[in-house]
Amino acid sequence: MPGHPRPQPVSPPAPASSGGDRIAAYDWEGLAQELDDYGCAVLGGLLSPEECRGIADLYDQERHFRSHIHMARHGFGRGEYRYFAYPLPALIGELRTALYPRLAATANAWNERMGIQEAYPAAHADFLKACHAAGQNRPTPLLLQYGPGDFNCLHQDLYGDLAFPIQVAILLSQPGRDFTGGEFVLTEQRPRMQSRVEVVPLRQGDAVAFAVHNRPVQGSRGSYRVNLRHGVSRVRSGHRHTVGLIFHDAR
Q1: Residue-wise DSSP of 139-152
Q2: Which of the two ends of the chain, N or C, has the fewest CB atoms closer than 10 A to its terminal CB?
Q3: What are the extents of the domains in the chain?
Q4: Do residues 141 and 84 make contact, with C-beta atoms less than 8 angstroms apart?
Q5: Predicted confidence (pLDDT) per residue in 231-242, tens digit
Q6: Which residues pair with 218 in a beta bridge?
């Protein structure tokens, strides 16, 4: 664990008019350091409360989605989610496109440190072309809904041979008002050591970028890989909505 104090979530002054503008307003050097140190980084205030409510309200409008998953049927936990269909809602698509190149720099640095011979292109459109050429054509951004007693088991969102190693989740509901419980949880399995748990506090509109599968950690003899999983603890009351931005498409 690094010896310096953990920085606070990095926030832009206020949500900008477009997804690209607001993503550019963050301190990406600081966020990249957070990802390196802890496997996750919080982008405070990415969405306004009005934007959060507008996206959450899409959940019951089936025309926006390609499929509907009930977690309990598959052993994923309790709760449900819907995968967006193409074309994505404008703001969701803008954020996915704008976030990708910022995160690709970290993803490429991680692969180099872990000895993985794979480089992610600078533009998200080029990465999606590679996914589609590999038969991964289905969009993966999703909208999740939890009620009392619901939870999401620890898991990894991979979906195919091509998988981008960083993902972003945006909390749409207000903790303490709309729901209680339901904390975002990240676990890190370290070789020959006990697992490390990270509980990430989020406010409405905050986003967390996090490692999906593996990331490098600096040891006394160089970098080594750790394996990560993420989930959501039990919602104790109310309802919790979240957007998940996954950057690869699925089979």
Answers
A1: ---EEEEE-TT-EE
A2: N
A3: 19-245
A4: yes
A5: 999 999 999 999
A6: 223
